Amino acid sequence: MIILPIVRNSTSFITDVVLSNKVYKLKYVYNVRDAAWFLSISKQDDTALLNGVKIVVSWELLSKFKDEELPPGELFVLDKTGTGLPIEKNDLGARVELIYLNESDIESLSA
């Protein structure tokens, strides 16, 4: 399990992370009109793999996408307070965290 790095007090940022032994670029953007955070994933060479997925509490962010280039695990949004409230601008990296579970993490949870 990996807790993904978040740049606090920013409405748009990119982080490079290693997920299942591959480097990915994760771009986070807060959309004021929607009052929501969105995530895009690209390969290290900036090839887009996933664009503008809304980050929602208690939701599997990758499960509905079938692209072999995407990380093979799953991204979850964890609400540390357990309230399940929508994510506000300053909640990402504070009240809520983005968690990556690799394939072996998922198998362990299923057993």
Give me the secondary-structure topology.
Elements: E1 2-3, E2 12-19, E3 22-31, E4 36-43, E5 48-54, E6 74-79, E7 96-101, H1 103-110
Antiparallel strand pairs: 1-7, 2-3, 3-4, 4-5, 6-7
Q: Mean pLDDT across all residues, rounded?
A: 92
Oligomer: single chain
| Helix/strand/pairing category | mainly beta
Strand content: 35-45%
Report the major sheet. Answer: 4 strands, antiparallel
Q: Any idea what the shape is? A: globular
SSE arrangement, N to C: EEEEEEEH
- Give the helix proportion (percent range): under 10%
Pick out the low-confidence regions: none
- As laid out across the biggest beta sheet, the strand order is 2-3-4-5
Quickly count the helices: 1
Separation, N- and C-terminal Cα atoms:
16 Å
Protein architecture, described:
- The chain is mainly beta and 111 residues long.
- The protein has one domain (2-110).
- It is 7% helix and 42% strand.
- The protein is built from 1 helix and 7 strands.
- The protein has one helix at residues 103-110; strands at 2-3, 12-19, 22-31, 36-43, 48-54, 74-79, 96-101.
- The strands form 2 sheets. Strands 2-3-4-5 form a 4-stranded antiparallel β-sheet, with no helix packed on it. A 3-stranded antiparallel β-sheet has the order 1-7-6.
- The longest helix has 8 residues, at 103-110.
- The two termini are 16 Å apart.
